[in-house]
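Retro notes (design track)

What went well: tokenization of the new backbones is finally stable.
What didn't: we kept losing track of which sequence belonged to which structure.
Fix going forward: every design gets posted as structure first, then sequence, in one message. First example under the new rule, 471 residues:
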């Protein structure tokens, strides 16, 4: 009896869809789920009549696979991943490959890679982006581990990955050693946080200042999606405004409680950026905004205690819409610039040898942040693979400079109306700081030296100095 080419453990929706995707591309697949009824339900449903084998025990599952076995784990990050690996290890043979396709924290991936490679097993930590639809019809995949291990899974991942519209290239590449794949996925998710917050701020600025109807919002975002802002997130935002609640007849978005959840990857991005010293203020502002949204009851109480300006806008309606469009695009460029600069810093810090152009290239389709902008970012790194920051690429420089006046007008309007736009403001502040020849850190250094003798450098001569500030 012939054995299957690929095995997957964990039949939640993402796992099921990846299996169906692999089967559709001609791979024979074995599946296992801790709850046998889940396996039975899957096999009786969408897996029926496909080249998929359901198994009841891990022993049966492992025995059903050809060697070297390629086994992907799709379970909750953290201890569940360690538990499954612990159960698998005694059943595997030298050279077998375990892929962790969940949102694992990259230091956990580093640890698992070392442990498994020491036991003569191969381990790949692979970021998977695209949600349920991406998993089913083509995700963006970010595999990290040894180049040798990647060679074994390359035919599979290239087949199931999304294909970029511009050149039909699969949205997957070898990312780098150890936890590199999960690191890149973590930063991808941080950029996603920034994108979503910037879109939400654009919405709330227009909502408060102009109060468009849901139909008007649909039209605005649809027009934006037809231009330079074209992306998955803008597209679904436009669609959201068409959903009417059956019970009330009102737009469903207006009935959703304003408390945003998070699973931790945005927070990890901000924490790691602080650890290695890379500024990502837009992404961190997005994380902060979700935290502030979570204290809904407290905000309701405080809204009756603290007042601000009356949100009344008397200017030109279309001018503000166009200003917000420009501000959103310029802010997005800054957010991506921060994310790519973080990847560059981390690559040096952890020895990942990341190809930033390749990272942008595999995000062009399949993933949540897919956007026309990523084609431009890919081209920027093709022009200069050592580009230190997207803002100094000629095309991005022009894109931001040409929108700068409208960007400032949008942020100024938000401030005047008392509308919080923390991510948009952070993007603008990042741009202004990055383009500044001189920042006020000279005063900070003077303060540090005054109270703690931390010393300082001078602009007029070499050396390290300390002053007696009381003389």
């Amino acid at each position: 009896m012939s054995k299957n080419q690929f095995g997957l453990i964990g039949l939640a929706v993402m796992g099921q869809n990846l299996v169906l995707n692999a089967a559709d591309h001609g791979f024979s697949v074995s599946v296992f789920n801790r709850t046998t009824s889940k396996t039975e339900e899957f096999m009786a449903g969408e897996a029926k009549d496909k080249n998929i084998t359901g198994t009841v025990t891990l022993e049966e599952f492992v025995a059903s696979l050809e060697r070297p076995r390629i086994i992907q784990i799709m379970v909750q990050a953290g201890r569940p991943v360690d538990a499954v690996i612990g159960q698998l290890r005694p059943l595997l043979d030298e050279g077998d490959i375990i892929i962790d396709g969940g949102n694992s924290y990259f230091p956990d991936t580093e640890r698992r890679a070392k442990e498994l490679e020491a036991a003569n097993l191969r381990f790949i930590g692979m970021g998977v982006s695209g949600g349920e639809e991406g998993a089913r019809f083509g995700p963006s995949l970010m595999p990290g581990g040894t180049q040798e291990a990647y060679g074994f899974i390359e035919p599979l991942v290239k087949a199931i990955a999304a294909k970029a519209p511009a050149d039909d290239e699969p949205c997957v590449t070898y990312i780098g050693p150890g936890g590199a794949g999960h690191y890149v996925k973590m930063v991808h998710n941080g950029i996603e946080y920034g994108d979503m917050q910037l879109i939400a701020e654009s919405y709330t600025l227009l909502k408060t200042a102009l109060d468009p109807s849901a139909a008007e919002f649909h039209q605005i975002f649809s027009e934006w999606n037809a231009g330079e802002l074209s992306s998955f997130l803008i597209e679904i935002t436009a669609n959201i405004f068409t959903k009417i609640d059956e019970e009330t007849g009102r737009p469903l978005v207006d009935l959703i409680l304003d408390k945003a959840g998070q699973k931790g990857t945005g927070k990890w991005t901000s924490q790691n950026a602080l650890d290695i010293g890379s500024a990502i203020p837009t992404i961190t502002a997005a994380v902060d905004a979700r935290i502030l949204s979570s204290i809904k009851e407290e905000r309701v109480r405080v809204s009756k205690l603290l007042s601000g300006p009356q949100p009344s806008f008397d200017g030109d309606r279309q001018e503000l819409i166009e200003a917000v469009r420009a501000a959103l695009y310029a802010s997005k460029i800054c957010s991506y610039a921060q994310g790519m600069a973080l990847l560059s810093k981390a690559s040096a810090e952890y020895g990942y040898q990341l190809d930033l152009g390749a990272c942008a290239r595999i995000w062009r389709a399949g993933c949540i942040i897919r956007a026309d902008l990523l084609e431009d970012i890919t081209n920027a790194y093709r022009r200069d693979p050592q580009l230190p920051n997207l803002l100094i690429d000629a095309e991005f420089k022009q894109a931001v400079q040409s929108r700068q006046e409208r960007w400032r007008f949008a942020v100024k309007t938000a401030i005047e109306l008392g509308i919080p736009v923390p991510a948009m403001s952070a993007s603008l502040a990042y741009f202004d700081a990055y383009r500044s020849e001189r920042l006020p850190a000279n005063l900070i250094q003077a303060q540090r030296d005054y109270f703690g003798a931390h010393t300082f450098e001078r602009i007029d001569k070499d050396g390290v100095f300390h002053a007696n500030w009381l003389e």
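Added context from the reviewer: The longest strand covers residues 122-129.
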